[in-house]
Design brief:
The protein is α/β, with parallel strands linked by helices. It has helices at residues 2-12, 14-29, 36-47, 53-68, 75-90, 118-131, 146-159, 172-186, 205-219, 238-250, 268-275, 318-326, 329-333, and strands spanning 106-111, 136-141, 163-164, 190-195, 226-232, 254-258, 301-305, 313-315. Helix 1 (2-12) crosses helix 12 (318-326). Bound molecules: guanosine-5'-triphosphate and magnesium ion.
């Protein structure tokens, strides 16, 4: 089971994997000594997969330090060291998505810019929650586009979960409020609320989301229980400003990185980790996280999206992810 999901990720993070393998292939497999040239190649490989300047610097510095301490005498040791560094960096972002059963309905707001993958992710997540035996209701909070409502209704139909929707142009906050009422009346466990990614020029997206949040918490003071930003991995370094902007506006509790399949560069996760590097005492340090809603805990990546299908939402796990990136075909073939 575990092996299956890992193989799946392995297959789909191709671009980043090849880039790393290409540069690191020399380092890991060749006869080459670990000199400045080798470190430069590693640096180039990391930068080429959207790891970003900050994170790359951290990783290369850490490796260089070990080299100068002569801890890394061979390529095998180097590979192990890189794995450790990458994993350590992502580890604080590994936290499972959990539904608090004391909160019913447990309300999840899905936010993000248009086209990021919000609606699709809701469809996939609804399926997972259903498979866990939970009842789910979808709220069509993206009232800006008629197609958005239809898309959500289609996901609802496929997963056999109800969808609360109103006509195009309806007030997003009131649709979500209605959905919470419906969920409470029906004893439903989880409400997944879709939101718009783009609004008319006269309406500000962040204002709208803030209003949604206010209205939701009027219904239940503890809600929303999760505010999850869906990021399109393909946008690269722009992810960083999106995390900051949405967090500032609505206080994020988690991330989902969609579209890590295809041409996406998986390195963006390291860039996000580096941006969020704040130690547990609140000072800038290694790989903790400062968020408006929770100043000392790392902002988790709950899931990664690796395709358009309903099954293509994988739990994020730092170790599994880094393994998938560093594994090469040979090793895989030999188990
Ligand atoms: N390859 C791939 N495609 C994805 C993934 N997630 C979503 N998509 C596709 O990305 C496109 C946009 O996804 P949506 O879910 O409609 O995005 P959205 O954030 O709801 O967009 P708006 O409603 O316009 O704000 C669709 O064609 C999805 O099928 C993924 O993990 N991998
Ligand atoms: Mg949508």
């Amino acid at each position: 089971m575990k092996e299956d999901s890992r193989t799946g990720i392995w297959d789909r993070l191709s671009r980043t994997r090849y880039r790393l393998a290409e540069a690191a292939g020399n380092l890991f497999l060749g006869e080459r000594s670990i000199d400045q040239d080798a470190l430069d190649d590693l640096e180039a490989a990391l930068l080429g997969t959207d790891v970003g300047v900050d994170a790359t610097q951290r990783i290369v510095d850490a490796i260089a330090k070990r080299v100068s301490r002569r801890e890394l005498s061979d390529t095998r040791a180097l590979r192990g060291a890189l794995r450790e560094e990458l994993e350590e960096m992502l580890a604080p972002m590994t936290r499972p998505f959990e539904v608090d059963e004391e909160r019913r309905p447990f309300v999840v707001l899905m936010v993000g810019v248009n086209g990021a993958g919000k609606t699709t992710t809701i469809g996939k997540l609804a399926k997972q929650l259903r498979d866990q035996g939970r009842s789910v209701l979808l709220a069509a909070g993206d009232t800006f586009r008629a197609a958005a409502v239809e898309q959500l209704i289609e996901w609802g139909r496929r997963n056999e979960v109800p969808v609360i929707a109103q006509d195009r142009g309806a007030d997003s906050a009131s649709v979500i409020f209605d959905a919470m009422e419906a969920a409470r009346a029906r004893g439903i466990d989880v409400v997944l609320a879709d939101t718009a990614g783009r609004l008319q020029a006269k309406t500000n997206l962040m204002e709208e989301l803030r209003k949604v949040k206010r209205v939701v918490s009027r219904f239940d003071g503890t809600a929303p229980h999760e505010v999850v930003l869906v990021l399109d991995a393909g946008i690269g370094q722009n992810s960083l400003s999106q995390v900051a902007r949405f967090d500032e506006a609505v206080g994020l509790t988690g991330l989902i990185v969609a579209k890590l399949d295809g041409t996406a560069r998986a390195g963006i996760l390291f860039a996000i980790a580096a941006q969020n590097a704040v130690s547990s005492d609140g000072r800038d340090g290694r790989y903790g996280r400062k968020v408006a809603s929770d100043p000392v805990r790392a902002l988790p990546v709950y899931f990664i999206g690796v395709g358009e299908g309903v099954e293509d939402l994988r739990r994020f796990d730092a170790r599994e992810f880094v393994d998938a990136l560093l594994e090469n075909g040979q090793e895989k073939a030999h188990g």
